[in-house]
Design a protein that fits this description.
This protein has 428 residues and is of the alpha+beta class. Among the domains are: 100 residues, no CATH class; 95 residues, Alpha-Beta Plaits (2-Layer Sandwich); 92 residues, 2-Layer Sandwich (Pseudouridine synthase), CATH 3.30.2350.20. It is built from 13 helices and 19 strands. Strands 3, 4, 5, 6, 7, 8, 9, 18 and 19 form a 9-stranded mixed β-sheet that branches. A 4-stranded antiparallel β-sheet has the order 12-11-13-16. β14 and β15 form a beta hairpin. The protein starts with a strand and ends with a helix.
């Protein structure tokens, strides 16, 4: 079946051009409150991280394991604040949704006991470990999501596979420009990156008025007085510029984690473009010589890449069709080399973007290329409740719960179900 085009201009701007399902969307709204979107990390041991997790033993090491709960807060500023408060280094497996109630396991490289509560942030110790948590050290995430303002909800859902696009939050919803800043960094347009970061206007941005004032006047000293403390990173850049830093130097004042996030968002945009092009021309289950595939484990995560050659093509094609293996698509980076069909697809995209793989090394950050599954399979899907919606008169709500492999996005599943033309107004 050919992919179904999206009607969303925002999704198209992220390279997310298609749906895998032909049915009409159910509509509705998500995230009307943080409790409508709950994210619980699943550890490599298969443990669900939530209020019930009180103990986890990974050896009698010097590292503390703790659960971090946050409500409608971005992760990186919280990690920075907690590191200063605790006097230790905090590591985590992945960045969770900002507009949600989220639970995840973190490691602290010093002793910490008990429970710490700061506003809508909670941290409590659950055990010790011989090692710190590293990025990607999880099996997946469990989502419990309430969809509101519905007319009806289908009695049966065909939940099979989904295109493994990088989701909306990777690029930003209120300010959908994370990948744009990343592109400017890659192209060494540092002044452009600063103007985009500080003062480009997007409808729905809660800080649009102060950004407009700065854009119209470019009075940096004045901006320090009216930019709120919530815009901590913007104020760092402004302060550096005021004290004589170049545009490149001012950006260097940002944490490497944040700079990396911008560039990774641009990598994600290119991946989405390539995935859409591959899907349109060849499908996502049709493999060719020069491709790479991976077997899927019990958590539906990919194992080691296997290159497709003439001798294994037929066997691997059957495994992909059976859902036991998955086509891998490249995420571009400083070291990546494209083969087969992908060489043509990516070369054209990079040429149109005006970049080369070597450009992904910047700010002492070298983002190497890697592989990402072209599709993903939910580990579980459950309709938990359909009932009267207390927030929207005359409507119903549906509560669904599903678990996804690591690195995949709940919003990609939800967009197939809801098919929003305006993801921002729908709560994505």
């Amino acid at each position: 079946m050919r992919p179904i085009p999206t009607k969303s201009l925002m999704e198209s701007s992220f390279g997310m051009f298609y749906y895998s399902t032909p049915n009409e969307g159910i509509g509705g709204k998500i995230r009307t409150s943080p409790e409508d979107f709950i994210v619980e990390e699943i550890t490599p041991e298969g443990i669900i991280v939530n209020e019930d997790l009180k103990a986890l033993d990974r050896g009698h090491g010097k590292v503390t394991l703790a659960v971090l709960k946050k409500i409608s807060k971005p992760l990186l500023p919280i990690i920075s604040m907690l590191e200063k408060k605790l006097g230790g280094r905090i590591r985590f497996a992945g960045i969770k949704d900002r507009r949600a109630v989220t639970y995840q396991l973190v490691s602290i490289n010093r002793p910490f006991e008990g429970r710490l509560k700061i506003g809508s942030i909670e941290l409590w110790s659950v055990g010790r470990s011989m090692w710190e948590i590293y990025p990607g050290e999880l099996s997946g995430n469990r989502f419990t999501i309430t969809i509101r303002n519905l007319e009806n909800f289908p009695e049966e859902l065909s939940i099979k596979w989904f295109p493994n696009y990088f989701g909306h939050q990777r690029f930003g919803i209120s300010r959908p420009n994370t990948h744009k800043i990343g592109k400017m960094l890659i192209k060494r347009d540092f002044e452009g990156a600063i103007k985009e970061f500080l003062a480009e206007l997007y409808e729905g941005d809660p800080h649009i008025n102060v950004r407009k004032k700065l854009r119209d006047t470019w009075d940096l000293k004045g901006a320090l007085s009216y930019f709120s403390d919530e815009l901590i990173y913007e104020k760092k850049v402004i302060n550096a510029l005021i004290h004589g830093s170049s545009a490149e130097g001012a950006l260097y004042k940002l944490s490497k984690q944040l700079l990396r996030l911008f560039i990774e968002a641009y990598q994600s945009y290119i991946f989405n473009l390539a995935l859409s092009e591959r899907w349109k021309r060849f499908g996502l289950f049709n493999i060719k010589i020069g491709d790479y595939i991976a077997m899927l484990n019990s958590h539906r995560n990919p194992s080691k890449p296997i290159e497709i050659v003439k001798e294994n093509l037929v066997k691997m094609q059957k495994l992909v069709e059976q859902g036991r293996a998955v086509l891998l698509m490249p995420i571009p980076g400083s070291n990546i080399k494209f083969k087969g069909i992908n060489e043509e697809i990516y070369s054209k995209i990079l040429y149109n973007e005006g970049i080369e793989p070597k450009d992904f090394s910047i700010f002492e950050i070298s983002l190497r290329g890697t592989f990402r599954p072209a599709v993903f399979y939910p580990m579980s899907f459950e309709l938990m409740e359909i009932s009267k919606d207390e927030k929207f008169e005359g409507k119903i709500k549906a509560i669904i719960r599903f678990s996804l492999p690591r690195g995949t996005y709940a919003t990609i599943l939800l967009r197939e179900l809801m098919k929003p033309e305006d993801p921002k107004k729908t709560g994505f």
